[in-house]
Amino acid sequence: MKLMFFDDFKLGVVKGDSVVDVSALVKDIPHTCPGDLINGLIANFGAYRGKLEAAGGSGMPLANVRIRPPVTRPQTIDCMAVNYMEDGTRDAPAPINAFQKVPNSIIGNGDTMVLPDVPATLFEGEAELALIIGKRCSNVKAADAMQYIFGYTNFIDGSARGLHPPSNVFYQMKCRDTFAPIGPYIVTADEIPDPHKLQIKLWVNGVLKQNFNTDDMAHNIPRCIEWISSIHTLEPGDIIATGTNHRGLFGLQDGDKVELEVERCGRLTINIRDDLKRTWDRKTRLERAELKLEGLSPQISGKYAKP
To answer: Which residue ranges in the chain fall short of pLDDT 50?
Structure first.
């Protein structure tokens, strides 16, 4: 099943190229906002699944509705750091590590990531598979971890690189408003039998930049859940983003159109806005490495550009 919010946060079930409004079927779930509604549905999905699957009607074409973020108020957004083997270029997995984003970072399909007025070296958007937690859990064993997954979605990890001081880099790099695009919908776990065999592709302005498979993860999903849940309790609707292959990353800038497609999870499209109209060299990390260029793509023009 594919679940989404659309228009004024009506809950919908996606069927082909259409979405069926099922808001009336879940109106008894206590909620004061869309975040409460989807988290409550996830926590009690067994009681509603049959009704949602049986929902009839022709629905509305997806092309004619405004697609909203499928999850709006997770209690936590945990993002795995350096969690890919980078196509075999890493000799060994990096030590397991993560950072958090805040719910205000979330935007949805068709929305805009805004590059803030800060002296970042550059801004990147990392293509990732994210999982949605389905049941409250703590200290989960890896062998049991998959049963706690409700579903999956596309996730773009926005990053403002190179900010100072380096000692608090993750917080100010990752927690910016609009820096966690997700969607366009949640695909329930039963539709993805093996999340470790999914192709991930990201295009910028129609040019393919990232293209890798989840089979290259350094720490697999059960291990990630095991580790994170040993640190804090996970709740229904919480998000875990599983990391990216960094080799296709490069500097985003004003006017870019970014499209992410995780296999079986649909396509998430966002826009980039930079009111300062800064520009960066457009080579990817891989292209720079092949040219034996050091560091990240330099800023070419605009505020904070180095002479």
So the answer is: none
